[in-house]
């Protein structure tokens, strides 16, 4: 026996205006900004730990870390010797453009001394989807342990992303998951979405995603 | 380099009043209600699929399923031949007491024909923590693939739960996770919290959690 009730979505405020302002600041400073979203433990910070050591040979990198509590992620990323601002939201379940603007005001280095800015959102597959931050590209990190159906169950997040990183490829032999079905689910809600299968632990599959990121940046500069 | 900024938590509305009203309705009807919270893919629905076949031999069971989109979880649980109401929040990142009240009004069977009600929240380790639903016990399901530090990073959720189910024990050999550290992190934010290590896939460790649930229910009846 099953009954289904739909509850209407509330409208958002004027976050978009503030996001546009952030984007303008970033563009003026020549900074390409990439935001990362995903569930708790999907591997967002580990992805940064994997790609920053390679990217910092070429680019001056900054990171804005968003967490409900603790600066654990900020400390992990700062250990890579890049400029990090940790936003502790104190209960808020997502970053918004206002918080990111505050972080831009409080980077450990001047904004125009950076080339590439990563913004890691609070671990949450729902709320961050609705808030543009001013980023040039948004990336969702999904752990394959979360199950094939997540794009269908959390469609807004997968609709509003520019690429999908399916992480923890090293666990494929041990988890009953069908990656083709997972990708198909993502393409139901977002046809044509670029999908990358990676293991942030072993490094497998990371290069193609970095290539994608560099292509996005190359297009933005033109 | 690392800077840290704290943003203040907004105060909640009068959800608590509505939750108290739900609790009163449940008590009057003789229904013991248990809510499940956790990240997307932590195994909340799989836990229900694992325990309901055993529990329904003794109890008349109802389930309220909360999802942002789709009735997939509702259909999975309804296949176990119990009364299910699926709440599709249409973007809202958590259940609140008002939604649960609506679900109680729209169960496929009269409330007083149930003994045990499970309420599965939206997959989200942040927002649901703040909203009492009227449940008698709250349970957090945490997949060990999410990492040891999650209780420290999402403390509200672990503070406001009555037990913690650490799931996916079958993956221990393949994941670099320290379960003692995970439990210790939970006990930092919630000293004395009962913790159960289970695999909803194999059934390992499920019995002690069911025993805990039955003890809670026995105390509630007194």
Question: How would you briefly describe this protein structure?
Answer:
The structure is a homodimer of 222-residue chains. Chain A is built from 8 helices and 8 strands.
Largest interface: A-B, 68 and 68 residues
Oligomer: homodimer
Largest sheet of chain A: 7 strands, parallel
Widest sheet: strand ordering of chain A:
4-3-5-2-6-7-8
Number of helices of chain A: 8
Spatial shape of chain A:
globular
Give the overall pLDDT of chain A as a whole number.
Answer: 93
Proportion of strand residues of chain A: 15-25%
Task: Provide the gyration radius of chain A in Å.
Answer: 17 Å
Q: What is the β-strand count of chain A? A: 8
Description of the molecule:
- Two copies of one chain form a homodimer.
- Chain A has a seven-stranded parallel beta sheet, sandwiched between helices.
- With 222 residues, chain A is α/β, with parallel strands linked by helices.
- In chain A, helix 1 runs parallel beside helix 4 (97-105).
- Helix content of chain A is 36%, strand content 20%.
- Chains A and B meet through strand 1, helix 3, strand 4, helix 4 and helix 5 of A and strand 1, helix 3, strand 4, helix 4 and helix 5 of B.
Keywords:
222 residues; seven-stranded parallel beta sheet; alpha/beta; homodimer
Question: Would you spell out the secondary-structure blueprint of this structure?
Answer:
Two copies of one chain form a homodimer.
Chain A: E1 2-6, H1 15-29, E2 32-37, H2 44-55, E3 61-67, H3 72-78, E4 83-88, H4 97-105, E5 116-120, E6 137-143, H5 150-153, H6 155-159, E7 163-167, H7 179-189, E8 195-197, H8 206-221
Parallel strand pairs in A: 2-5, 2-6, 3-4, 3-5, 6-7, 7-8
Helix pairs in contact in A: 1-4
